[in-house]
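Apologies for my clumsy wording, but could you write out the amino acids of a protein and the tokens describing how it folds?
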Amino acid sequence: MTTTEQNQIVEACRAHLSMQAHQDSKAVEVLVLKRHGSSGLTVQQLPVPDRLWEEYPPDTVITALADAAVLLGGAVTANAVAIALSYEGLAITSGASPQADEVIRRYWASGSIPSPADVPGRVHQRFASVVDRHGRHYLVPVEKRSADTAALGLSIGDADVMSGPAVEALATFAGAVWPHLMPDLGTPDTHHENF
């Protein structure tokens, strides 16, 4: 069962991603979702110089942001209910093509797989990996179609925890913003490789 706040987080991310899906937006963004009045959330992009994204992997940049959040005493993230990493990627879904089905089968069998860019039926998406103030993880995808449409994907809520260096760095950032989460943000059980 999802709460009103969880629904607001997912919808705020979807709205932001839908807008980004048909704009020339940055490849990677760190977002802060803040309470706006009693019934809504605003999405704010943390100002991260493009040079950092170009020179360092996302997990290094996010870890540096976590260190800065500690030094700034949470001033950047006041009233935050969630933080997110927004990025672009390719999704492969079952039934998109025989090659996609084979890649999925090999992935689950821990076999080698080709780059998603080489698989027919792949879908360009914009994603948000999110951690909320209660330590819940989300994955919110929005399919990039044409310049004027974006199809909404389904979110993966609390039961599914993402992993990968950037997502783990995001959890570290969440622990810096909300120190009470640190014991709860251990090693994830389920894996969705994002970077």
Summary: Residues 4-21 form the longest helix (18 residues). Residues 90 and 117 are 7 Å apart (CA to CA). The chain has one domain: 4-184. The longest strand covers residues 80-91.
